[in-house]
Amino acid sequence: GAGRVFRHRPTFSKLVIVLAASGGGLVAYADGRTDDSKESSQVAPKKKVVVLGTGWAGTTFAKNVDTSLYDVQMISPRNYFAFTPLLPSVTCGTVEPRSIVEPIRKIIRKKNEEIKYWEAECFKIDPKSKTVYCRTDIGTNVEGHGEFPVTYDYLVIAVGARVNTFNTPGVAEHCHFLKEVEDAQKIRRSVIDCFERANLPDLDEEERRQTLHFVIVGGGPTGVEFAAELHDFITEDLAKLYPTIQDFVKITVIQHGEHILTSFDKRISSFAEEKFQRDGIELQTGFKVVKVSDKTLTIQNAMHEDSSIPYGMAVWSTGNGTHPVILDFMKQIGQEHRRVLATNEWLRVAECESVYAIGDCATIAQRKVMEDILEIFRFADKDNSGTLTVKEIQDVLGDICIRYPQVELYLKSKHMSDIVDLITASKGDIQKEGIELNIEEFKKALANVDSQVKSLPATAQIAAQQGNYLARCFNKMRDCEEEPEGPQRIKELGRHRFLPFRYKHFGQFAPLGGEQTAAQLPGDWISIGHSTQWLWYSIYASKQVSWRTRALVISDWTRRFIFGRDSSRI
Ligand code: FAD
């Protein structure tokens, strides 16, 4: 009905007043707008928004977008939302797979207006014809294949990332990944397989040792959490069930850098390394895996010397790579030199009208960020002297941190440059006004920062905040149809219609096993230990997408406390 063009359906008395005119109508709306381009009897059809992906970013967008304004269609090969932070718990049966997933249809059914969902994978994006080409393996069309095109007015790309193997030979064939629920289920079966295989008669000691050698490649949050989970599973449950072979078990984490958990504060990274040492988890830092065969991993040190490690099961967790559909799209729009799809601060793909990208598949272009930072810097240098006082530098940094939390994260991390040390050291002691910093030097320091601050980390927190932000922008889009980013900065008024996306960091957790977790919370607050584990339990329970999954997850945790984990291979 005519009311569909309104966010709130108007009552009949407020309804559209039609001033008839021959050949074309002038439509006057109750809120004072007029539109002479439409036939009097016509109502502008709702714009079609196509969302690719049912992960953190896509689902949050769909949950928050106003479906009375848009015809929303979701496309994803996964017909459910998965609570990825609990995936490591699924690998060892601490939590069951179905406890962390929610059917997407249940989530989108909550809307008054329908959101359509197609279970398919997008394999090509054509921005010129505003069409995405999809493929499904669960059915065929009249032409006998499972491919179909979907047109859009606006496209929201939220396809996440895939595992990055860095083209290392043998990884795809022999290693497990930990990205999807299916991966976690496969790992769970494989761990039990290793124990059953090592327990078979007629195996020599060396074979049992190799079969029970679990190798994790990558010392980031996922790799470390999985190693901790596996250690708990083995010591708390499997050791009792396989007493004769428990002494052959070994867990090794291979990390390219010098330390594990480098995205966390140094204190957390050191605590985790010490805890792993106490638990007997071996850390091989400073090594790169260069080849994987069915029985051994070849690792290389900084001197390019190779050595080989026999293993029973290997999990590859070394960061994110880009989906082929995104690589192809980036080529079409001239972004082939980039690793991840770049957007502006309003999350729109710079080269493409009407295409937005959120979550792990996108990053806010950094060149613009650095230009902005220098702009703030030049603005602070009011007398054009080329130098700033400590007070001015503090102000500049304050401004930069508000606009770019990733810079703040960097400043707070352990890799502070000398210049930042100088500034922090003088914090609160404004008397030292005599210290001045040369703008050129500061630029050099920022260039260093830039290499560390390439992009925000790929987390669910960011993906969800971007989905929410973009939905709110779409809900206001009717006012800003021409310029989705809002009008140019209205300097005199000092405001944007849409503020650019700003990430709000609520902290991050690193579960380390043995009912101990480390947390890095806003305000540089570090907490490690058993009490933090309870904080982790409460936050993760509260963040579940539905009461059903919340109840299931809590009951899984309780079941594990009482009965331990299940080691059946089903
Ligand atoms: P995803 O959630 O990965 O969703 C991508 C969606 O796109 C999926 O539905 C997928 O099926 C779909 N898709 C893929 N290809 C196509 C295609 N061609 N066409 C259509 N649809 C497609 N973050 C945290 O903040 N805290 C944590 O504790 C944490 N723990 C993690 C633990 C693990 C094991 C993993 C793997 C990740 C963890 N993360 C964590 C990171 C977090 O999961 C990601 O940052 C987040 O999932 C990104 O959201 P997204 O929507 O961009 O992608």
UniProtKB/TrEMBL annotation:
What membrane topology term does the record carry? Peripheral membrane protein
Q: Report the main location listed first in the record.
A: mitochondrion
User: From which source organism is this entry?
Assistant: Canna indica
One annotated GO molecular function is: calcium ion binding
Key word Zinc present in the record? no
Q: Which reaction does it catalyse?
A: a ubiquinone + NADH + H(+) = a ubiquinol + NAD(+); a quinone + NADH + H(+) = a quinol + NAD(+)
Q: Family assignment?
A: Belongs to the NADH dehydrogenase family.
The UniProt record lists the EF-hand domain at: 368-403
UniProt keyword list: Calcium, FAD, Flavoprotein, Membrane, Metal-binding, Mitochondrion, Mitochondrion inner membrane, NAD, NADP, Oxidoreductase, Peroxisome, Transit peptide
User: Could you tell me which SMART domains the record lists for this protein?
Assistant: EFh (SM00054)
Q: Could you tell me which Pfam families the record lists for this protein? A: NDH2_C, Pyr_redox_2
Q: Kindly state one GO CC term assigned in the UniProt record.
A: mitochondrial inner membrane
What's the protein name? NADH:ubiquinone reductase (non-electrogenic)
Instruction: Give the EC number(s) listed in the UniProt record.
Output: 1.6.5.9
- Cellular localization per UniProt: Mitochondrion inner membrane; Peroxisome
Q: Which Gene3D superfamilies match?
A: 3.50.50.100
